[in-house]
Amino acid sequence: MMKIFIKEAIFIASILLAVGATAQNDTGRDRQKRSSIRLGAEIKKDNLKKNRTRALSEHLIIPKGEWQLGVQISHVSLSSSNSEYMMLLKNVDANGSITKVAPFVAYSYHDNRSVGLKLQYTSAAGDVEKGDLDFLSDDLNFEIEDVHASMNSFQAAIYHRSYIGLDNRGRIGLFSDISLGYTNSKTVFTYNEETADTYARSNQLKLSLHPGIVIFAMNNVSTHISMGIGGVSFNNTKYIKAGETIGKRNYSKANFKLDVLDISIGVTIHL
After folding, report:
1. What are the backbone dihedrals phi and psi of residue 216, each rounded to the nearest 5 degrees, phi first?
2. How many CB atoms lie within 10 A of CB 112?
3. Which residue in 155, 163, 181 sits closest to 59, CA to CA?
4. What is each CA distance from 151 to 40, 100, 122, 123, 199, in whole angstroms?
C-alpha cells in the first residue's frame, strides 16, 4: 500500500513539474511579446525628455523606425448661387474650384515623431460670365462679363509631424505639422483681348502650421484630415505680357487663422 502511495505521489509531482515548466515557457513568451512594440502604450515623460505637468497622456501611435507613404486630396467648389461672398454682385453667374493632390513620404525617427517630404500640385479656376457690381450707390456700380482666371502651382515641402495618441489601442490620435515649402505658380487673369497674353509668375517660401486628426481604419492603413491655420511667407511675383516682364512685386506676409481653402483629407500606408 505504501509503495502504491509513493508511486502515485511521484506521478502527481511529475505532472505538476511539467505544468509548471509549460507555464514558465508561456510566461517567457508573454514577456517577449510585451517587450516588443505595443501600440497604445503610454509614453512616459522621461522618454520625451520634457516635464509636462499639464499635457495629455501620450500613447504610442507611430513607433520609431516606421515608413509612411500616402496622398492628400482636397477639392473646394464655389458658386454664386450658394456663396455669401457674392453679396455685392447682382444678376451674377460665377463659379470656381480649387483642387489639390499631394503625395508624401515620411520616416518616424522617434516614437510619435516623424519627418517627411511632400509634393503638391494645385489647380484653381474661376469664371464670371456676367454680373452687376453694386457698392450700395447708384454712382458706384458697373457691369462685368467674360472674366476668367486660372492658377496652376507646384510645391515641394519638408515637414515635421508630432503625434499624440489618444487611446490605449493606438487607433486615434492628433497631430501637428510644421512645414517649410517652396511653391512656383502661374496665374492667368483675362477679361478682354488685351489681357490674353498676360500672366503672373510667383515664387513663394512659406513656413506653415497644419494640425489634424488621424484614425487607423486598419492596422497598416490610416486616414487623416488636416487644416491650415496660417503661417509666414515670402513672395516674389513677376507680371509678364507678351513674353516681357512689365512689373515686379516682393512682399512678406504673416497670417494666422483657419483657412477653409486649406483643408485636406489623406490616406497613409504604414510600413
Report:
1. -90, 105
2. 22
3. 163
4. 43, 12, 8, 6, 10
Dihedral in degrees, nearest 10, Cα atoms 235, 123, 230, 167: -140
This prediction has a pTM of 0.70
Segments of the chain with pLDDT less than 70? 1-57, 80-93, 130-145, 193-194
- Count of residues in the chain: 271
The pLDDT of residue 170 is: 82
d(CA 81, CA 107) in angstroms, rounded, equals 45
The three-point CA angle 159-119-221 to 5° equals 75
CA distance 234 to 181: 11
Q: What is the pLDDT of residue 258?
A: 81
- Structure confidence at residue 241 (pLDDT): 84
Question: Cell numbers at residue 130, please?
Answer: 456676367
| DSSP 8-class letter at 136 | S
User: 4 vs 12, 16, 17, 18, 176, CA distance in Å?
Assistant: 12, 18, 20, 21, 73
Extract the C-alpha cell encoding 61.
501611435
Question: How does DSSP classify residue 25?
Answer: H
Residue (of 256, 249, 254) closest to 235 by Cα position:
249
